[in-house]
Amino acid sequence: MRVDDHAHVFTFKTFLTRAAEADLKVRLMAWHLSEAAANDAVRLAKAVLLGENADVRLAAFAATWGLGGSPILEFLRRGCLPDIGAVTDALMADTATAAEEADAAAVLLMMDVVDQDSTPEELALYETQFTQTADQAERYPGRALPFVMINPLRGNAALDYLRRGLDEGRCVGVKLYPSLGYTVTDPMIPKILRACQDAAAPIIMHCNDAGFCGPGYDCTYCSPMDWQDAVADYDVRFDFAHFGDHTKGNAASDTHPSWRDFITTLMDRFPDRVYADVSYQSGPLGTPEEREAYVAWLKGQLANEKRGKNILFGTDSFLIFLATTARNYWDFFKTALGDDFNRIAVENPARFLGLPAAGTAPDPNTALGRHVAYLRERKNAPDSRFGQGSAPAGWLAGLL
User: Fold this and answer.
1) What whole-number distance in Å separates Cα of residue 323 and Cα of residue 332?
2) Could you read off the pLDDT of 253-264 as tens digits, one per residue?
3) Looking at the DSSP assignment, which residues form a beta bridge with residue 108?
4) Are 274 and 263 in contact (CB under 8 A)?
5) What is the pTM of this model?
6) Which domains, from first to last, does the chain contain?
7) Residue 136 near residue 85, CB atoms below 8 Å
8) From the centroid of its chain, how far is CA 335?
9) Tens of pLDDT along 48-71?
10) C-alpha to C-alpha distance for 150 and 326, rounded to whole angstroms
11) Which positions fall inside the Amidohydrolase-related domain (predicted)?
């Protein structure tokens, strides 16, 4: 089963706080939109949330800014969809087509962009996102694999999502995003890591110098140098997302050694625990020379006995549409790696996620074991959505 280890299905309705809005403008401008166009994109999203027709607004936006055919339009369209189920349907269709497998899976990473100034109404958006994202696991059993995002900026309320995600079996792992405004020294981090260790739940942590970054903070909160002791102290499978990618010309991340190189040293030290995914990286999106150099580097890592087992495929859909299409991103890696693609899309994700061999039950005390029990319970619930998106994945055979 091929897996996209890094994807998102939030909607603007479940995500667009004031903090997220400011970050979104920065991300749009990073891909060659003017400040005026970025502001107009945010106005478009807000207008659709208030009931305006998304297709009409998108057509007007494209005409105004000369963006006909740009993948950014698909990014905006998906964000404007009415619910997370609709975004998930689009993602899973993309994934099955690009993977050339009807059974292909995707990790659904939640996003909770809040800060100390967020209003009660903004804080409440994540509850809807959490519930709707967890529901997708029921609709696409064994194929849609939710990771609950824990944001310490919520205070102790964040721990309730940890409990509901892992203890209740709604999610199979945890997402961290330090550049939103917290460091590895936050007192909540040991509680999160201990809970993941106890539940054998993997962690995916944002790790590059871009993405969403809280005002007044900086990307170095994601530095793998800072998180190496946490990796050493807890027996947790830990994915440094985006492989510590650096944006060319970003002075804030001009560090030595590079984050990418440092992550590979962590793989050497902790071969059973440290992973990295290749989602939304500058190399595959660069010039022909940069793409060629990236492929040579990646093949070199895959040839390494330890590192080759710990590299994961991911797209960062639907955020990847800010730069290219998800299909193009899949095709780049399938073409570049040939037969080796299945190592990063099948074998390594199965190990990272803890997926058992078909028909083999996972430990019931682990996050994945609880997730299987949750799916089994929901299958026969009166309000069940079980299998509405697809039949259960093959690895669930005989377990439900």
Assistant:
1) 14
2) 555 558 999 999
3) 7, 146
4) yes
5) 0.96
6) 3-10+84-353 (3.20.20.140), 14-77 (no CATH)
7) yes
8) 23
9) 999 999 999 999 999 999 999 999
10) 26
11) 98-355
Q: What's the pLDDT at 369?
A: 97
Instruction: Name the nearest CA neighbour of 154 among 187, 121, 118.
Output: 118
CA–CA separation, 307 and 316 (whole Å): 21
- Which residues touch 267 (CB under 8 Å, ≥6 apart)? 274, 275, 276, 306, 307, 310
What token pair was written down for 381? 């619930």
Q: Which helix (H) or strand (E) holds 22?
A: helix 18-30
Tally the residues of the chain. Answer: 400
Yes or no: say if 150 and 158 are a contact pair by the CB < 8 Å rule: yes
- Paired tokens of 120: 């009660």
CA 276/CA 264 separation, integer angstroms: 9
Please give the Cα distance from 235 to 78 (Å, whole number). Answer: 37
DSSP for 113-139 reads ---TT--HHHHHHHHHHHHHHHHHHHH
| Measured distance CA(267)–CA(245) in Å, rounded | 16
Query: In which residue ranges of the chain is pLDDT below 70?
Result: 214-217, 248-257
Residue among 332, 391, 377, 395 nearest 98 (CA): 332
